[in-house]
């Protein structure tokens, strides 16, 4: 690991000043991804600014009836929060489906969003990888890619985004709030991650040296039901092969509101808008759900070894929507 | 004189305070093992994947291999050495011995720290990935084998002592009146 300087920031202005002071500086949250990648030599910052002592922790109600997750709130605290469990259960379930108890106690909300891909070539500096070393090629495209993307990849990179939490946040139309020396800003999750294109190393729309300050969840109607389901290669403690966060609001058999987001299929959480449009305002019905899932996945371009994900995604979408519709009738 | 790449820190481990100078790259795991001599926490993978290095930081279980020592200064840290009272084993340690919850023992310090912290998390009402209804209005699920396995899935055991690790943990939960 390369040597680095460490500073602990106690107010946001200080953190922003330190970040803009020059050199390759990185914010340190729980360190569960950054420290890991520094050990592999994938990341080699000159300076770490510990943000966990900034006044950015905690979970609060927003004026619009939604909730604000402070950037440094741990994944555990978000998943265990009574209001998150009551109003955004898919978010609680998504977090609980990720990593381990220890890691969730360390991981922060902001760090979770900004964790890097788990593509094995990315994690190994002796391999080609456009995301880590632009222009070096993509080892996974013709190599080991059974757990890579089926949607919206480019020949430059076929990796998926690993976060479970971000998939649920996409379904709830969350906004990421940030601050720079120039002021505060916000990005909807749908525009937070950049399409992979020719420059997979440019991962988010955050301006340079931006500090994420929080994640805002819009209000939800009390009758919106939501659920997260994750398929993985082990029963627990493994990244998703495919996951789905879905929310449904049904009144007298009619679907008023629907949100579907997929994990493990693209370089960012995949909002299934085609399927949503087919289902919204229709009568809740398993056949319709399957047709909607098929329509969404007609855009899939599986790689040599991951066509199974298309079937998996279709079955997951159908099952979860059917379960949610059934729970409405109880 | 410390330069930018080193820090003078104070660590509070198992009730003792130690001031030391560390390279900023030093992990909490290496600091407690090599600088403070607490060799209970083990280095299995050094990448957050196995749980052998589990310790408690401010009462919560964490992996010490991905925690920088400099970032853990001023926090209260407890390793397996801080679990027992004097020479008397803590009840969960005793249950591990009696129920054969280990073979080589390499993962055991991490398993015990993790299980104890997990019991506190459960007592606070935290749900898990196998909890059917995460609603706060639903009763906190009793700890059964499935709940224990899920909640301890961050601790691997290459000897495969899992059945008796679950047994010892369930016995402990039963003593606290929180298992089925
Ligand atoms: C063994 C293992 C298994 C895992 N399994 C899963 C899984 O199944 N599902 C899943 O979703 N995740 C999983 N994870 C990943 C884990 O969720 C992430 O590592 C974690 O959420 C990252 O959060 P952190 O606070 O530790 O981030 P850090 O490692 O501290 O930081 C990550 C990135 O975010 C940046 N950053 C941090 N805070 C801010 C801020 N406030 N503003 C701007 N930038 C910031 C850092 O500079 C860095 O680039 C696993 C990790 C491990 C090690
Ligand atoms: S898929 Fe992306 S991350 Fe993986 S090797 Fe190719 S460029 Fe790198
Ligand atoms: S040594 Fe820390 S988790 Fe394996
Ligand atoms: S007892 Fe040997 S690794 Fe668990």
UniProtKB/TrEMBL annotation, chain A:
Domain spans labelled FAD-binding PCMH-type: 1-222
Matching Gene3D superfamilies: 3.30.465.10, CO dehydrogenase flavoprotein, C-terminal domain (3.30.390.50), Uridine Diphospho-n-acetylenolpyruvylglucosamine Reductase, domain 2 (3.30.43.10)
SUPFAM superfamilies membership: CO dehydrogenase flavoprotein C-terminal domain-like, FAD-binding/transporter-associated domain-like
InterPro entries named among the record's database cross-references: CO_DH_flav_C (IPR005107), CO_DH_flav_C_dom_sf (IPR036683), Diverse_Substr_Oxidored (IPR051312), FAD-bd_PCMH (IPR016166), FAD-bd_PCMH-like_sf (IPR036318), FAD-bd_PCMH_sub1 (IPR016167), FAD-bd_PCMH_sub2 (IPR016169), Mopterin_DH_FAD-bd (IPR002346)
Superkingdom as given in the UniProt entry: Bacteria
PROSITE patterns: FAD_PCMH (PS51387)
Matching SMART domains: CO_deh_flav_C (SM01092)
Claim: Iron-sulfur is one of the keywords in the record: no
This protein's UniProt keywords: Oxidoreductase
Protein name: Xanthine dehydrogenase family protein subunit M
């Amino acid at each position: 690991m390369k040597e680095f300087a460490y500073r602990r920031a106690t107010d946001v202005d200080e953190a922003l000043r330190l970040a803009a002071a020059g050199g390759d500086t990185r914010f340190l949250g729980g360190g569960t991804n950054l420290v890991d990648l520094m050990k592999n030599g994938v990341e080699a910052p000159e300076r770490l600014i510990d943000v966990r002592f900034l006044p950015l922790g905690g979970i609060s109600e927003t004026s619009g009836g939604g909730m604000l997750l402070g950037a440094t709130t741990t994944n555990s605290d978000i998943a265990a929060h009574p209001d998150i469990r009551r109003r955004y259960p898919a978010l609680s379930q998504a977090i609980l489906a990720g990593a381990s108890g220890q890691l969730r106690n360390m991981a922060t909300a902001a760090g979770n969003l900004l964790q890097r891909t788990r593509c094995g070539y990315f994690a190994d500096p002796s391999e080609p990888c456009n995301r880590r070393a632009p222009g070096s090629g993509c080892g996974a495209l013709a190599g080991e890619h059974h757990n890579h993307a089926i949607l919206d990849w480019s020949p430059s990179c076929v990796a998926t985004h690993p976060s479970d939490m971000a998939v649920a946040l996409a379904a709830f139309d969350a906004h990421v709030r940030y601050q720079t020396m120039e002021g505060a800003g916000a990005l909807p999750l749908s525009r937070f991650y950049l399409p992979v294109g020719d420059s997979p190393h440019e991962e988010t729309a955050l301006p340079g040296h931006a500090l994420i300050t929080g994640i805002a969840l819009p209000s939800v109607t009390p009758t919106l039901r939501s659920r997260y389901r994750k398929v993985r290669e082990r029963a627990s403690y493994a990244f998703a092969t495919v996951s789905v966060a879905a929310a449904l609001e049904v009144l007298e058999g009619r679907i008023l509101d629907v949100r579907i987001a997929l994990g493990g299929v693209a370089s960012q959480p995949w909002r299934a808008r085609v399927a949503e449009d087919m289902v919204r305002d229709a009568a809740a019905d398993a056949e319709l759900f399957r047709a909607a899932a098929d329509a969404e996945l007609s855009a899939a371009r599986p790689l040599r070894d991951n066509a199974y994900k298309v079937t998996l995604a279709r079955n997951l979408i159908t099952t979860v929507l059917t379960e949610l519709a059934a729970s409405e009738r109880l | 004189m410390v330069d930018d790449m080193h820090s003078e820190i104070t660590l509070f481990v198992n009730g003792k305070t130690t001031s030391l100078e560390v390279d900023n790259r030093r992990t909490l795991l290496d600091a407690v093992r090599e600088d403070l001599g607490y060799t209970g926490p083990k280095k299995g993978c050094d990448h957050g994947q196995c749980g052998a290095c589990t310790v408690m930081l401010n009462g919560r279980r964490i992996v010490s291999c991905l925690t920088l020592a400099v970032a853990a200064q001023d926090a209260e840290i407890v390793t397996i050495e801080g679990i027992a009272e004097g020479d008397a084993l803590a009840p969960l340690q005793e249950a591990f011995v009696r129920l054969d919850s280990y073979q080589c023992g390499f993962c055991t310090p991490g398993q015990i720290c993790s299980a104890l912290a997990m019991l506190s998390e459960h007592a606070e009402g935290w749900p898990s990935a196998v909890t059917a209804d995460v609603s706060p209005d639903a009763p906190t699920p009793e700890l059964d084998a499935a709940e224990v396995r899920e909640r301890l899935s961050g601790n691997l055991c290459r000897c495969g002592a899992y059945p008796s690790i679950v047994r010892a943990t369930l016995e402990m939960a039963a003593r606290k009146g929180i298992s089925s």
